[in-house]
Input
Amino acid sequence: MATVVLIGAQWGDEGKGKVTDYLARNADLVVRYQGGNNAGHTVVADGREYKLHLIPSGILYSDKQCLIGNGVVLDPQVFLREINGLIEQGISVEKLKISPRTHVIMPYHLKMDAIDEERRGTNKIGTTGRGIGPAYTDKASRVGIRIAELVDPESLAEVLENVLAEKNQLFTEYHDSTAFDYKEMLETYIEYGQKLAPFVADVSILVNDAIKEGRNILFEGAQGTLLDLDHGTYPYVTSSHPVAAAACLGTGVGPSKIDKVIGIAKAYITRVGEGPFPTELNDENGEYLRREGFEFGTTTGRPRRCGWFDAVISRYAARINGLDYLAVTKLDVLSGLEKILICNEYQLDGKVITEFPTTIKELSRCKPVYQEMPGWKEDITKIRKLEDLPANARKYLEKISELSGVPVAIIGVGPGRDQTLMLKNLY
Ligand code: IMP
Output
């Protein structure tokens, strides 16, 4: 048995959905522990494409228990739409459970997200506009509404009355905006609560019991290390903790119970939203990666910014998350490039630095120092064994592993479930 945490080692969109889906076949439980429907996973299973935002990717297997932990923020409307979509596609959602401690994204959070972004003007974060930041803000300010209150009409009426009065005052008096109608919102959310009630269960108990029973557990992170509220490129970050430590906090499990941490890294790097990005390519190579990798956001459809692999970032991710292994995804996207660059250090104000800087001011002045690797021409999407990869592709992976200081356990060579090379047994 093993408990495995999967995290994004870059700025999100590393292909966690596909790796989770792949590893989920050997897991009994798949648990999400942070973020909300700002995430977007595309999973291709049996030739069909599924886009998931909130529900753990393990849902595509009928025998897996999928859990949403207390660290997640959940928009009931999105949740219900997503489960209805899955049911229509013949996927069972019977084993899906949500923690009663999970916080709810309310309509005023979406409105506040939009207002905040507009107010920031040219300094906007480029959020997904899903109300994530304001929902976590309310959680920390202790005015949030949790699933426990949502499913109890009396509690909901009480909490919502107080919160909405304050929000409406803010909207009308400070933001030149309109107020929400309390009765209307209460009715709608009571109805959501009743629909969600069958899904509510104590996730901490379920996970800890499963650990005691020696079952395999997969903690599925959303976003990536550099979007972490504490360890990311603040303030161009999300409002939750995509790092591995959050798997414990976001589900109610002690750190001693985690066996392995896997960092997912694309064979290059992408980023959506604003903020400095040292290896960003604004040339034909960047275009090539965007086109070949189909780098457009699953949630917002925005074109992703693309750049060369950055080992300063992967070493940082290895340290912050305690990575045991790397999963390198989308290696096939690099096929056809004459040469491939890897950044191993930065030039900052005339000095060479090898550690990721703390401030975005410093990061925006960092110039990548590259090592050049020869590319390969062959199509690798049908390869299933490491030794069958072109020699230059193997050398590239070895270099990534050496510079990151982490062994590679999984390689992705295409979007399909089977387009995965498994080098280590993780369970
Ligand atoms: P928020 O999470 O919507 O508040 O957005 C904050 C920042 O995180 C923005 O730069 C978003 O583009 C980024 N972000 C949020 N979720 C994801 C994701 O799943 N993948 C990549 N970037 C994300």
